[in-house]
Amino acid sequence: MTEISKNALTVLEKRYFTKDETGTVLENAEGMFHRVAHAVAQADCPFGGDAEKTEACFYEMLSALDFLPNSPTLMNAGRPLGQLSACFVLPIGDSMEEIFEAVKQAALIHKSGGGTGFSFSRLRPKGSAVRTTGGVASGPVSFMRVFNMATEAVKQGGTRRGANMGILRIDHPDILEFIDCKQNNSDITNFNISVGMTEHFMQQVEAGEEYALIDPKTRQEAGRLNAREVFEKIVDSAWHNGEPGIIFLDRINRDNVVPRQGEIESTNPCGEQPLLPYESCNLGSINLTHMLRETPDGWEFDREKLERTVRSAVHFLDNVIEINRYPLGQIEATTKATRKIGLGVMGFADMLLRLGMPYDSEEAVAFAEGLMRDINAWGHDASAALGRERGSFPLFAESIYHEGSALRNGTVTTIAPTGTLSIIAGCSSGVEPVFAYVYIRNVMDGTEMLEVNPVLRETLESQGLYSDELMRRIAKEGTLAHIEELPAEIRRVFVCAHDISPAAHVRMQAAFQAHTDNAVSKTVNFRRTATRAEVAEVYQLAYRLGCKGVTIYRDASRENQVLNIGSVRKSAENKPFGAIVPRPRPAVTCGVTERMHTGCGNLYVTVNYDENGICEVFTSTGKAGGCPSQSEATARLASVSLRSGVCVDEIIHQLRGIRCPSTVRRDGVNCTSCPDAIARVIEKVRSDLEPPAPDASPASAAAEHAPAHTPQILHSCPECGAVLEHEGGCVACRSCGYAKCN
Q1: pLDDT tens digits, one per residue of 42-69
Q2: If 0-12 CB within 10 Å is exposed, 13-18 middle and 19+ buried, where does residue 660 land?
Q3: Total tally of structural domains belonging to the chain
Q4: Mean pLDDT over each residue of the chain, to the nearest integer
Q5: Chain-centre distance of CA 156, in angstroms?
Q6: Closest CA to 72 of 344, 310, 272, 325
Q7: What integer pLDDT is reported at residue 695 of this predicted model?
Q8: 372, part of any domain
Q9: Could you tell me the residue range of the domain that residue 667 belongs to?
Q10: Rounded Cα–Cα distance for residues 662 and 155 (Å)
């Protein structure tokens, strides 16, 4: 069995190992791999296979860390829950009954350890008439919030919190509201969102043409929008905080293996697995760093081992379909009708380092395409062999493969994000470049510990260049590119995510997509100084190169607490919860007082500010009375929050729209409650204080005056406070194993 790192063992103990009712760990890594191998091998028995021989093969592959299945399989195989699939897609029909049936089904899936994808495109737009009640529809975004709250309430077996994908077609009448629905980073937090585009829409964008919005209920035109303006709105929103991504629906359906079963409308939460309603998929990834062999002249690619591993992995994933305990009978029937699997890779960036290829080189792109061509061909050949032995998938006769030889699985390959799996395997994630070569972690006694990429450490040690001082400098810089004392060849090869141009990210994604049945999960990482124009160029390049979708993330574009790769902010990490101290009230402030008409009379709201922005709120009530204590409490908490660094927009968002019964049907009332009145005045003052927008975008101006290199600023992990990596539409912590999606 391959030695597992201390960090990987921590992740396994926290999230994967079997425990008793008191939380005591009952197995080690060897035991976990034996449990999984034994359970999955039993699927050979009905087909007359040798389960013991298969178990030995599977155990060797898993324990050597040559291949790992998706997290639910490692967690649940051989255990009572027995739900092994990573992702599901559920349909949402346009009725209250269908909507809340989907909520219930999603809760059952999340409880079992899976993630869910939804298309909200069938729901009638906001404001549409509802005949049965005489009311009006609240629209897709409103129901997304219902699903979001249900997800928040369900903790998946104590190990995984539910993740969702929400998709809306570009021609839905509510598309503009959907694009903006996650502009506040604290809103709809359990969803990734993507706009479902078409190639025709992209052509209209290039031509600057208008396009029709279609009411999904009536199928009639419900308005027109300028395609280029909508595209620019998507770009602006993605530049703002990485949401929404985009997927190309017609490209996904071009590869729909059973088109007579209907259109594919949605994907799993990370965008890489398009599925029909009620389909699920079982994913797994080959560790490419183990597909190399060391020779006297250096490292070389071991094609024979890779082929053996591909064939064994396809066998493993097909067996998972057999032994899986599905959360719904309809999911089991639909999944077994097409038997889709998704074999992918991890450790690709580390493999390139061993082979001396810079990630952003043409050589690496060509190598990636050839590598995936081989994996896809071997995978399909292995599936065909299983088809001859066990029979093709039941819908084979009506599939796009019906004129060929038997095939056990409707799809074979997928490139998924591998957040925690790559930690266990000790390699880089998926097909992403290395995000950072050196991290600084806090350990429990308050000391700092260096986490160094193993390939970099080995390379520097072999040349007598390694030192803790140098590692701390690399951590501070965030890159090797500007460290002149390192040999030029090392700096050429060891590029990180932010050294690589956005276009190079897309070219690599396209290289893998060319030979992948499903889709490729990858994040195009931008520096914080990137412009909106650069984001637009990436979307257009992804369209031209044949990608099925694209996700971008601009560094530091979300409002969560941030950490620098190069230093650990102990003041933030080591304070107990609630220890943030607001800055002192300034001696002199300027302010505005506004009279607001509430249901209980007049409320006078004073909002003060200093050179640092809005800093306090006061309220007083008129003669008619009202709720002075509650208004004062709201104002005091708002003041403390403002001086503690809470975003003004977040305070406005939390207070805006709160309703009080006293405001109902009252003439002259210009707010819905006292908190709403406070929010409105804060919002007005905030708007008055903001300088007018310049002609150039803020990002462009920042880029013009920014230094040549800006340290990478990242989100902090909500569980351990370490840095988070953005990959494949997901976020993952390489310190504790937290992952949003897998």
Answers
A1: 999 999 999 999 999 999 999 999 999 9
A2: buried
A3: 2
A4: 88
A5: 17
A6: 325
A7: 42
A8: no
A9: 590-689
A10: 38
CATH number at residue 166: 3.20.70.20
pLDDT band of residue 155 (cuts 50, 70, 90) is low
User: Would you say how long the chain is, in residues?
Assistant: 742
State the Cα–Cα distance between residues 733 and 742, nearest whole angstrom. Answer: 11
Alpha-carbon dihedral 441, 444, 446, 452, rounded to 10 degrees? -20
Where does the pLDDT of residue 13 fall: very low under 50, low under 70, confident under 90, or very high at 90 and above?
Answer: very high
Q: Contact, 499 vs 492, CB < 8 A?
A: no
Task: Copy the structure tokens of residue 560.
Answer: 């969560």
The domain boundary residue, chosen from 207, 233, 261: 261
Q: Determine contact, residues 301/355, Cβ cutoff 8 Å.
A: yes
Domain boundary among 209, 230, 261: 261
Question: What is the pLDDT averaged over residues 317-344?
Answer: 97
Q: How many Cα neighbours within 13 Å face the side chain of 148?
A: 18
Residues with catalytic roles: 268, 270, 272
What's phi and psi for 597, nearest 5 deg? Answer: -90, 110
User: How far apart, in whole angstroms, are the C-alpha atoms of residue 139 and residue 135?
Assistant: 12
The DSSP secondary-structure symbol of 711 reads -
Angle (CA) 356-359-364 rounded to 5° is 75
In a domain, 646, yes or no: yes
The predicted structure's pLDDT at residue 471: 95
Residue 490, classified by CB atoms within 10 Å of its CB into exposed (0-12), middle (13-18) or buried (19+), is middle
Q: What are phi and psi of 657, to 5 degrees?
A: 90, -5
Q: How far apart are the first and last CA of the chain?
A: 24
Q: What is the pLDDT of residues 301-314, one digit of tens each?
A: 999 999 999 999 99
Q: Which residues is 452 bridged to in the sheet?
A: 438
**583 contacts: CB under 8 Å, gap ≥ 6:** 612, 615, 643, 644
Helix or strand run (H / E) with residue 677: helix 674-689
Per-position DSSP letters for 209-237, written without gaps between them: -EEEEE-TTT-SEEEEEEHHHHHHHHHHH
Distances (CA, A) of 610 to 613, 633, 681: 5, 22, 16
Q: Is residue 518 part of a domain?
A: no
Which of the residue ranges 192-196, 421-425, 559-563, 685-689 would you say has the lowest mean pLDDT? 559-563
| Those residues with Cβ within 8 angstroms of residue 365's Cβ, 6 or more apart along the chain or in another chain | 507, 508, 511
Residue 229 in any domain: the answer is yes
Which tokens hold the place of 305?
Answer: 């081992």
pTM: 0.80
Among 297-311, 386-400, 720-734, which is the least confidently predicted range?
A: 720-734
The CATH number of residue 672's host domain is 3.30.390
The predicted-structure confidence for 244-294, as pLDDT tens digits, reads as follows 999 999 999 999 999 999 999 999 988 889 999 999 999 999 999 999 999
